[in-house]
Amino acid sequence: MAVRLGSQYDKRAFLGAKLKRGWERLTDAKKNKTDAERLARIESLAEPVSRLSREEMGQRVEEWRSQARAGKLSLEDIVEEAFAMVREASRRTTGLYHYPEQLIGGLILVRGAVAEMATGEGKTLAVSLPAFAFSLFGKGVHCVTVNSYLAKRDCEFSTPIFEYLGLTVRHLPEGKEGTPEAKRQAYAADVTYGVGYEFGFDYLRDHLVLLRSPRSGPRERLRNALMGRANPEPGIVQRGLHFAIIDEVDSVLIDEAGSPLVISESGPGRNEGAAAYHAARDLAASLREEEHFVLDLSRRGVTLTREGFELIHQAPGIPWDLLRRPWQTYVLNALRAEHFFLRDASYVIDEEEKVCIIDEFTGRRFSERTWREGLHQAVEAKESVEIRAENDSSATVTRQRYFGLYDTICGLTGTAAESAGEFWHFFGMGVETVPLHKPSKRNMLPEQVFQSREEAYRAVLDDAMARHRRGQPVLVGTRTIRASEALAEVFSEAGLPFTLLTAKQDAEESEIVARAGEPGHVLLATNMAGRGTHIDLEPASLASGGLHVIAVERNESVRIDRQLIGRGARQGQPGSAQVFVSADDYLLEHYAPKLSEKIRNARADASGEVSGKFSEMIDELQQAVERLRYESRLALAQRDKWLDEIKSNLA
Question: What is residue 291's DSSP assignment?
């Protein structure tokens, strides 16, 4: 997608990025070199590099490393030769030879920008180019992904390439495997693959270690030096934040940026204040909307009216001795839990009868995460499961601030164009589009808008059934687990064979997705199937029209829709896609109830489909919601900056 001013929700920052890039090209002779000139140089090096033995390549790499670490070599000096070297190492170890488009993507990344590469264009292989170039400086390169599965997969794929060139590569362990020693070994490698939040949590853990470790004064250090003893060093695991290459960068830096990284410590056992959450739940259930409280659907907020405020404080049975915050906060949390946090949409109840948060953008489960300020306990009270003790925050940092600490960050994704202004505002990264290796053959069918969810589901069923019968594979993408399971019932009742993939079967994802390209196969999935997973199509599937993608309702971000649609028609393959929308969809009901009502009352055909003119209105609504979410991220970043300034002044 072209990066245009009209599609931006932060137009001022977008124009700033354009001006900065143009000024650099005018004033810096080295950066004035075009990508076409650099590509020609890399191609000219292909033949002489192919004649080098592995030992000769290793010697060349060691020379570069020595010069780069001594400050005698810059990225601009070495980038073309480095890329040619990686390209040849990849050919020898994996059989894959970087396309010119992948080289362009690598050049964009080395510039510290965001490369928009379409799904299926080989982003994993493209990452090997800047990772090698950055590693020559000996400071460690962090290759960041959105989940553990992709981090391990990308690490395993890239290891032969890097090891052939004499580099060390490690995967950043998590959970029980993530011992301090295992993490130190991972960070000591030249290239480290891991999940974005784990890098951030390690940063916070290191800060807690430094904060709690006794520091030797000058006298103690002198005494140790005279006696030949080493000064005790805190047991931190990271060795600095220098280079970060972020895959699915819009997911890591934008979609997940609305929630900060928090290290929490909880007390053991049951929550002694559980009765307060139950009392708030029961009281909230007796309140009447408009009379006692008002809902702000667009911001997911709740406000008590004056009558409501007086009522909740006059109610009998308030457990005052158990409260750790104002009573109204307990009641407001109970109302939010009831009206905005839906089971199988915002969370699931896992095998241990615990509330497990669902990532709203990917559909993945995060069992270790909890909502703060008593909200998680309010949801537990709503579900009548055991209420766990609240977590107390020990350290916190926003994702914008954490990744802003790196000397150089860059990233790639299939959907960055609309967020170019935000990338520049927070990180100083421009967005550049990488051309397709092969022309797209995607057939994008017109969006269909229906008066009700039931009518939209029937239309989805009819379309999926017809394609299944003629042997075309179908991927049906939904916004939530609840929607997937509701649609699954419709499919089952109609006798349509399908596979259901939700966050509840996270461990089976790769196996389920591997079958999605079989002829006539129907995969019903949440958004988790749209990021980073690969769908191979059999010859019969290609002959029947390729993968057909059905998007059930619009998401709050058009980027999420584009990611899902991008699962089909990859690398010049045939494919098609269509979006089905109804007046009952979350986007319309929560952000534009008047538009939702207008669609319900519009003239429709026998199937319940209304005029396509509503699609333009929904486009405008999506843009407005994007801006709203962006303002929320701006406010979070400003709050984090303010708190940091206060801490600095108090230190």
Answer: T
Q: Could you give the C-alpha distances from 7 to 301, 374, 420, 477, 559, in angstroms and in order?
A: 28, 38, 9, 24, 11
Residues ≥6 apart with Cβ < 8 Å to 605: none
Q: What number of other Cβ atoms are within 10 A of residue 254's Cβ? A: 26
CA distance 204 to 207: 5
Neighbours of 451 (CB within 10 A): 21
One-letter amino acid for residue 221 of the chain? R
pLDDT category of residue 583 using cuts at 50, 70 and 90 = very high
Q: Is 575 helix (H, G, I), strand (E, B) or coil?
A: strand
pLDDT band at 71 (very low <50, low <70, confident <90, very high): very high
CA–CA distance, 546 with 541 (Å, rounded to integer): 5
Q: What are 208's two structure tokens?
A: 């807690």
Q: Which residues of 375-404 are buried (b: 16+ CB within 10 A; e: fewer)?
A: bbbbbbbbbeeebbebbeeebebbbbbbbb
Torsion region of 153: left, alpha or beta (phi above 0 gives left; psi -120 to 50 gives alpha): alpha
Q: Distances in Å between the alpha carbon of 265 and those of 389, 393, 394?
A: 10, 7, 7
Cβ partners under 8 Å of residue 209, min gap 6: 234, 235, 236
Tell me which of 193-207, 265-279, 415-429, 514-528 is least confident. 265-279
**What's the pLDDT score for residue 255?**
86
What's the CA dihedral at 547, 553, 554, 560 to 10 degrees? -40
Distance CA 181, CA 159 (A): 21
Place of tokens 């206060």: 646
Written as six digits, the tokens of 441 are: 């053959």
Contacts of 375-379 spanning 24+ positions with Cβ under 8 A? 375/333, 375/336, 375/337, 375/341, 377/271, 377/274, 377/277, 377/333, 378/277, 378/280, 378/281, 378/330, 378/333, 378/334, 378/336, 378/337, 379/337, 379/341, 379/346, 379/347, 379/355
Question: Taking Cα atoms as reference points, which of 11, 1, 6, 7 lies closest to residue 424?
Answer: 11
Q: Is the pLDDT higher at 262 or at 386? A: 386
The pLDDT, as a whole number, for residue 210 is 82
Segment 459-475 mean pLDDT: 97
Cβ contact 249:114 at 8 Å: yes
Exposure on the CB side of residue 398, measured as CA atoms within 13 A: 23
What are 483-537's pLDDT values in tens digits? Answer: 999 999 999 999 999 999 875 555 567 678 778 899 999 999 887 654 666 788 9
CA distance readout (Å), 229 to 29, 136, 209, 224, 236: 51, 33, 22, 5, 20
Q: Locate all alpha helices (DSSP H) within 1-74, ordered by sequence.
A: 11-27, 35-50, 54-69
Q: Would you say the pTM of this structure is higher than 0.90?
A: no
Domains, the chain:
5-213+235-262+399-433 (3.40.50.300), 271-392 (3.90.1440.10), 441-619 (3.40.50.300)
What is the pLDDT at residue 336?
Answer: 95
**Contact (CB, 8 A) for 14 and 5:** yes
Q: What residues pair up with 522 in beta bridges, in sequence order?
A: 474
CA distance 251 to 414: 11
Residue tagged 């005029």 (tokens): 611
Residues 6+ apart with CB under 8 A from 625: 298, 556, 557, 587, 591
pLDDT digits (tens, 9 = 90+) for 637-649: 887 777 777 766 6
